[in-house]
Structure to design on (226 residues):
């Protein structure tokens, strides 16, 4: 599998370009609208055909490039069914499988950061969005976030994947790029807490709202076209 990790300076968001080496079919995961020219250049330089753009959730901090990428390339856009994003081509649920050349993308529902979060498992790599971050996890204080649900998601659905699975997060604020399930099980301080301690900890985070929340959430409900 080809994996390229791309960074958005304004929001510390990672976008991923993944592709099957043989057929050159490709997918973007969490593309950011303001980076569309950079990302389309890379796609064309690598000779890839974009089949999907997939969002891990309805983002609050940036606007998705999904609608614009669909217009420019004819790809299909996918996001969780529970988000009720009417413009999306694929309303994804647990267990969906998206073929990408010889690869397959398994859709895993990982709610908690928001109620409609998905992770994508491809070729021993897990793209976790904001569910599991490196040595951390997504906040749970808006968009129907739920700390208990996030704890259960990570312990029961994410940490049960093989230890060597590579974790590619949706953000990192400390310059880290990737991790593994084994490493996070052993060293993620939040997930070493008991469920009750985790609930208490998440309550005390007191983070400011993302700068773009009022604009990004409604725009992302329209595939970034509003
Ligand atoms: Fe998020």
């Amino acid at each position: 599998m080809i994996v390229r990790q791309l960074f958005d300076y304004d929001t510390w968001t990672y976008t991923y370009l993944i592709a099957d080496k043989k057929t050159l079919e490709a997918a973007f995961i969490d593309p950011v609208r303001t980076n569309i020219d950079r990302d389309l250049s890379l796609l064309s330089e690598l000779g890839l055909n974009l089949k999907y753009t997939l969002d891990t959730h309805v983002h609050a901090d940036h606007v998705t490039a999904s609608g614009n990428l669909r217009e420019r390339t004819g790809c299909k856009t996918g996001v969780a069914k529970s988000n009720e994003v009417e413009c999306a081509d694929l309303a994804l649920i647990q267990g969906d499988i998206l073929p990408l050349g010889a690869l397959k993308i398994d859709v895993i529902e990982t709610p908690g950061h928001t109620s409609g979060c998905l992770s994508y498992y491809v070729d021993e790599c897990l793209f976790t969005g904001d569910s599991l971050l490196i040595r951390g996890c997504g906040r749970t204080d808006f968009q129907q976030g739920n700390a208990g649900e996030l704890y259960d998601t990570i312990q029961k659905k994410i940490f049960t994947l093989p230890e060597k699975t590579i974790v590619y997060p949706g953000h990192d604020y400390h310059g880290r790029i990737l991790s593994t399930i084994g490493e996070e099980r052993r060293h993620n301080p939040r997930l070493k807490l008991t469920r009750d301690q985790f609930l208490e900890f998440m309550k005390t985070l007191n983070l400011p709202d993302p700068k773009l929340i009022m604009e990004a959430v409604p725009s992302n409900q329209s595939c970034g076209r509003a």
